Amino acid sequence: MRCANLSSEWHWILEQDSPRALPEFTAGEFGMADQSTVEPVLAKSARAQGAEIRHHTQCVSVEQDADGVTAVIEDRATGEHRTVRAQYLVACDGYRGTIRDGLGIARTGRGAIRSYVSFVIKADLSDLIEKTALFWIIGGEGVTGGFVTHAQPNHWGVALTYDPAVESPEDYTLDRCAAAAKALIGRDVPVEVVDKASWEEAVGVADSYRAGRVFLAGDAAHVWPPAGALGANSAVQDAHNLAWKLAAVIRGQAGDGLLDSYEDERRAVAVELADLTVRSQESRFGPTPKEDPLEPTVCILAQRYRSSAMIGAEHTGVIGEQVDQYARPGTRAPHLWLDHDGRCIGVHDLFHDAFALVTGPSGDEWTSAAVEATERTSVPVRAYRVGPAASGAELTDVESEWATRYRLGQGGAALIRPDGYVAWRSEELPAHPAAALTDALRRILSVSA
């Protein structure tokens, strides 16, 4: 939305009927989820799987050798130092982090563009905001800024620009923030400021995502303007891409070459998104609104990879013009609604901790091939047969889209990586399916026969 204040007339920037649900492309929904909502969920899941989370802690030095990485971390409250030893280190210390600089990795891009003070307010605006919107761009007398929907009831995000040459975030007291929020709202309503932070809008992509045993992910690897929800989504996709590869190498299932594919796949996407988000912001915030070149759904779900960790990725372009509905190597596996023992699931619910071999109802030989390939490589491969309700397949194709979206012959199969991307496909049943699958796995995982 664009308006002088929330109490004035609103003008839609994006389509009014943009749906939350995207049933054709994913089982998930598109919506606003702020850090205060997402972070506790991630922390709970991480702890449940054995992770140790230390707040108020920073990494002060990193050294690596042929066998691992040694990091020294500091408790910022006590000043106490602790040494941590690991096989690999993933630097997720953000745009202002020090690990990238310490590794000597440069960053390419325009650098800092704007400085912001952001804060969360608690205010009952139910009589003012009747239509659902994700954000408002507000420009009126005295104050301009962004106003963002939060997941928690009556909580809203506010972002104000400031000139660091003239003032600092400390100049924005709680009273000043509350007054600015009221000006953006356009009414003198009760406002409570519950959180405040400062940040820079910047553009930059690290020239390398890997230095030996250290990897960059999230804002440490790339930053761009907050357009289209591509910041956090891209950071999650970085982690999704890297995590299964690290796990495979640590378990001895893959060679070191698999880890090189992380940069090959994710950095190319980052370079493209950095350009798109800058042009998107210019179209939205310029004096005259222009057509936005960025389509969030496409930018998130239509990313295309080319690397050694897939076979037959022949597409051109890093981001497709639309979400791919064809299971070809290098693309996200097309969404399907499936019935599994009376429970409706999305096909991506099958892709987590193992490779998945998806085939049609007559894919019994592929099921046997998956078992044999697992024995030969020690890499778990789970086979799934998809078909109509009466076909005898374990998974029922609820909307009859299997044949259209996967485009395999009667005996064909598609191999999906743990991150949901198509790694290899066989149009038909080969003479020796177990051998073909085993060879594909070894090539994808950079393992010699």
Automatic annotation (TrEMBL):
Residues 28-275 form the FAD-binding domain. Keywords: FAD, Flavoprotein. InterPro entries: FAD-bd, FAD/NAD-bd_sf, RIFMO-like. It comes from the Bacteria. Its cofactor is FAD. One of its GO terms (molecular function) is FAD binding. Pfam families: FAD_binding_3 (PF01494), Rng_hyd_C (PF21274). This is 2-polyprenyl-6-methoxyphenol hydroxylase-like FAD-dependent oxidoreductase. It comes from Streptomyces murinus. The lineage of its organism: Bacteria, Bacillati, Actinomycetota, Actinomycetes, Kitasatosporales.
